[in-house]
Write a structure and sequence with these properties.
The protein is an alpha+beta fold. It is 20% helix and 22% strand. It is globular and about 45 Å long.
Length: 226
């Protein structure tokens, strides 16, 4: 697995990521790393997953998308293991409303290790990473801080026709990459007996500020990607 990526990010894919805030990179991660990520999710093995973060070529994907060389990774235990018994959606949100720094150069890489229909995989509001608004989390109750002053998130799911929503059916080896300012969510598992597992990684350049509220999402120590 010395050459982890099966291909590079194309010029068109980079443009779509910068313009839309999201792109699906088809067949870019090698089967060996997908298998390792699958084993790490099955075993809940942080050491295996951190190896996927640091050696699978994910840093190269983010670097090619953002044209940024100096990157730091946060392995934030962002893994998903859904089955039909967990038929709930991940609500629409911005990652920046969960304590992350407000930077346009933070990339969320979502790597499925099983086939996933669009209904279960992430959906993103196209172009929302360019909006000037940072929204308050749904149902947020807390002290009077910056988030308390932010506007409430619109009800995207109840008004889907009013938003330009992008989604993908994905297979192992694909990566859905989106800007962390983008509004996004994921749907429930609908098919009985099917596994829908994925591993998500966050990447940021050296201008990343420390997470403002680490108690909400404990993060592993950030480390320099190769």
């Amino acid at each position: 697995m010395s050459n982890p990526l099966l291909r590079g990010v194309s010029f068109d894919e980079r443009l779509r990521f910068l313009r839309d805030g999201v792109v699906c990179l088809r067949g870019i991660v090698s089967p060996g790393w997908i298998e390792l990520a699958r084993d790490g999710i099955e075993q809940r093995h942080d050491g295996v997953l951190q190896r996927v973060v640091s050696e699978s070529g994910a840093s190269e994907i983010a670097g090619q998308l953002t044209v940024t060389r100096r990157l730091r990774w946060i392995c934030d235990q962002l893994l998903f293991d859904k089955d039909v018994s967990a038929a709930t959606t991940t609500p629409w949100h911005q990652d920046m409303s969960y304590g992350l720094a407000d930077s346009h150069r933070i990339v969320h890489l979502w790597m499925p290790v099983d086939h996933m229909p669009r209904e279960t995989a992430p959906e993103v509001v196209r172009g929302s990473h360019l909006w000037k608004t940072g929204y308050r989390r749904a149902g947020w109750i807390g002290p009077a801080d910056d988030e308390a002053q932010a506007p409430e998130l619109p009800d995207i799911e109840a008004n889907r026709g009013a938003f330009d929503i992008v989604g993908y059916e994905v297979d192992p080896g694909d990566v859905v990459a989106f800007n962390h300012r983008s509004l996004h969510h994921a749907g429930p598992v609908m098919s009985f007996g099917e596994k829908h597992r994925a591993f998500a990684i966050l990447c940021a350049d050296d201008e990343l500020l420390a997470m403002r509220q680490p108690s909400r999402q404990p993060a592993a120590e950030a480390f320099r990607a190769a």
